[in-house]
Structures are given as C-alpha cells and as structure tokens.
Sequence to fold (280 residues):
Amino acid sequence: MSRARSFIQADVFSASPYLGNPVAVVLDGTDLTDEEMRRLARWTNLSETTFVLPPADPEADYRLRIFTPGGELPFAGHPTLGSARAWLDTGGRPRHADHLVQECAAGLVTVRIGDGVLSFAAPPVVRGGALDDEYLDRIIAAFGIGRDRVLAHQWVDNGPGWAVVQLPTAEEVLALDPELSLIPDAMVGAIGACPEGSEHAFEMRTFAPGAGVAEDPVCGSMNASVGQWLIATGIAPSAYRVHQGTRLDRDGTLHITADANGTVWVGGAATSHIRGTITL
Fold:
C-alpha cells in the first residue's frame, strides 16, 4: 500500500542555487519494488533518482539504489553527494564525525563531510585502457570531428560504462553538437583544457544516451575516473577544478584532489532545495 515518504530534491556541484545537477532522493525506499523505483525515475525525468535503504554491510551508514530514466546504475557521483546531503539534513547520524559510508551496488563509497562541501572517494575502475579503434571512430563520427583533434582517449568505467576523449581546448568541447543516434548505447565524455589563468583547469561534457540521458549537466562519476586517469598519467596535477554544464545553462564546479595515499576525491557543493513527502 502506498504511503508518504520523506523526499528531498538536492542540487549538487554548484554554489549558486539551481545551477548544478539536481537529484531526487526518496529517504525511505523500504518495501518498494524495482518497478516502482524505475517508474518514479522515469517520472521525475532527472538524470538520477535515488532510494535510501537500511545497509546490509555493517560498515555502511545506509544503502543507496540509483536509477536513471533508463534503468539502475551501480554507482553515480552527484547522486552520491546529493543523497548524502539529504540523509544528513533529515537527521542521519554517521558513525564517524568526518565521513559517512554509502553502500551501493558498486560496493562501499566513503563520503567526506566538509564545511559546505561533500567529497566522495573515487571507486576503482572496472575497465581502463585505450578505446578500440572501432568505438573511437564511432564517437568521432558522432562528435563530428577529425581524429587529429583527439589528444588522448580512455576507458574510464567505474560502473556505468564511461569512456572519454580529450580534446585540445575547452572551446572545442563546448562546440560539440553530437549526433547521439550514431552512439545510442554510449556513455562518453569529452574534456578540454581551459585557457591559462582560468579559474578551472578543464571543461567537461558528459553524454549518456545509453542511460536515457542525452547530456548530464554535471557528472561526478565521470570526473572521478577521468581524474584518476589524468592524475596518474601526469596530464593533470594532483588538485584541480573542472567546470561543467555551460551548454545546458548550468554552472557546475568539481574539485578533484588526490591525497597522499593516491585516493582521488571528487567534491563540490550540495544543497537540499526541495523538502517534503512523496506518496509511494
């Protein structure tokens, strides 16, 4: 039987209200079926909708299920931070004062609790290495660019299936008007360097037709694994900032930092903007 459940819609990765990436968070997902969760995710029509559940792992503070309009994801970045913010804002008490532990299909994810900023530890990639020629050619064709514009490319899959291409400049990334019908199952990003002296080191765009999302406004999971790749290869320093969302009239900023142990953290602002109940 349907009942009222606590609900928050949070904005992630922007300090300016309503210019980040929204996520719908149902704070009590107990006794909901998979189909009921999928149905709500299709209805909200946001890039992700999440459901908070009691943890199965004794080390976790809560368990999270993450759905796009197209189906369930094992892990996603901005839903992780938005759900953590919603859980904390509705009285969640983590076992540790400075961090919480989220359980999801990809495993346990640590979220650091900072002053106005939450940061998650990038999960390990399940697939790395250069893209094969056939897939790269399909991406290039969809992007409408020449192969000579691709500085580097990589599988950066930490669950959703991400791949990325590096272009020479942020301007070239922003100029892309991809024909996604040529890559209907793709989960792919494009990143390019901002001009010297800019507030941000890179501009990122993320296209996820494979998950039913043409372009994700600001994507934490993509930036997490791209950060691991860029820092490990020396393309980027151990701490840098990424801008995302320009073509969608958003203003997202992601803080990417590698700590002394080599763990890459992805952080940003997260704010609960809509609070109430939802009947499910």
